[in-house]
Amino acid sequence: MRKSPKFSPEVIERAVRMVFDAKDQYASQWAAIESIASKIGCSGETLRKWVRQGERDSGVRAGPTTAEQQRIRELEREVRELRKTNEILKLASAYFAQAELDRHHKR
pTM of the entire structure? Predict the structure, then answer.
């Protein structure tokens, strides 16, 4: 999930908290989201995504938490790097094996 560079994590956290705190003041969560989104200057859909992630982080909704998503990204990056390294090692191994064969063949 990409975070908007326009809003700091503190603003996002406060907006999500405002939605959670205002649930009894509005007919629905979406009504609260639309109202609060207009006050902070983001779209309702953006705030809805923040709220859903906040629900996952607090255990109210199923799914990966922010920390788990970060860990997944780190592991995926590590896997990409390891695959790239393995490919380089395979190519180097093949190169040196061929060089060894050529050296023995020239004798």
Answer: 0.69
pLDDT, tens digit, 9 for 90 and up, residues 28-52: 999 999 999 999 999 999 999 999 9
Rounded-to-integer distance, Cα 1 and Cα 70, Å: 10
Q: Where are the domains of the chain?
A: 1-63, 72-107
The CATH class that applies to domain 1-63 reads mainly alpha
**Nearest one of 30, 18, 16 to 58, comparing CA atoms:** 16
Helix (H) or strand (E) holding 70: helix 66-105
**Rounded distance between C-alpha atoms, residue 85 and residue 63, angstroms:** 32
